[in-house]
Fold this sequence. Notes:
The chain has helices at residues 15-18, 25-45, 96-108, 123-132, 155-171, 200-211, 216-219, 223-228, 236-245, and strands at residues 3-10, 49-55, 69-72, 76-79, 90-93, 114-116, 140-145, 177-183, 250-259, 264-272. By secondary structure, the protein is an alpha/beta fold. The strands form two sheets. It has an eight-stranded mixed sheet with strand order 6-3-7-2-8-1-10-9, with helices on both faces. The protein has a two-stranded antiparallel sheet with strand order 4-5. α5 packs across α9 (236-245).
Amino acid sequence: MADVVMGFSSAHAPMMSADPGSAPPDQAERFFAALDHVRAELARTGAQALVMLSGEHFTNFFLDNLPQVAVGLGQDHLGPVEKWLGIDEKRVPGHPGLGGAVLSGVVSRGFQPSLSHRLVLDHGFMTVYDRVSPDAELPVVPIVMNCTTPPLMSLRQAYELGRAVGEAVRDYDGLERVALCGAGGLSHFVGEPRVGDIDEEFDRWFLRMLEAGCPDELLDLPNDELLVAGNGTGEVRAWVAVAGALAGAGTTTLAYEPVYEWINGMGVVIHQL
């Protein structure tokens, strides 16, 4: 049976890779130091695979076929697809055995995700993965979530999905140590007049809620109220899902930087048992 040895979540703004030097140096240093800490913890725990949850950016799916959740079962995953991202295109190893266990495990627990043997990884995955596994050796099971196109899962549903993912991982006997990652958020606006705005008040409240163990005040937040903090902010569903998988663990905010040059609230949290 596998142990979930740690979980973490991070913002995945494209500019953190495409033009990292555009941010104020002190902010960039603190944010990247937090991801360096995560990388060190992944090494310390001996994690053998990483289950990553991130939002869909119409890279794998579009309005003609947009699942709420899709699990990647490929032997490997091509990424990133954005040529301008500043990360070399590569084949990231997958883990079909773990992916299949996650898929069957969440189905048995009442969820109906889609599946794909050919998921590709965009900035939603690669900006974070490249920082914590720059040699691209850590196998990844990608889980794509619909975080922007209604109808949308509630935060409570995302939390329960994460709980199911965590239980499915723990039931898998093909590995001993697995880590989980949520990538996306925090507050940001995309493709609308408020591009560049960051809701710092929401971001800090959200991080406090994670550290408090995801109380009802967070999980019962209506989707329309979440949208007020930005039409891209719904990507925090991935963070809430990871928190659900690590329910009972201690949660620490490693960094929060409102980086206006990256049009994104940039944060990193870690969950450790």
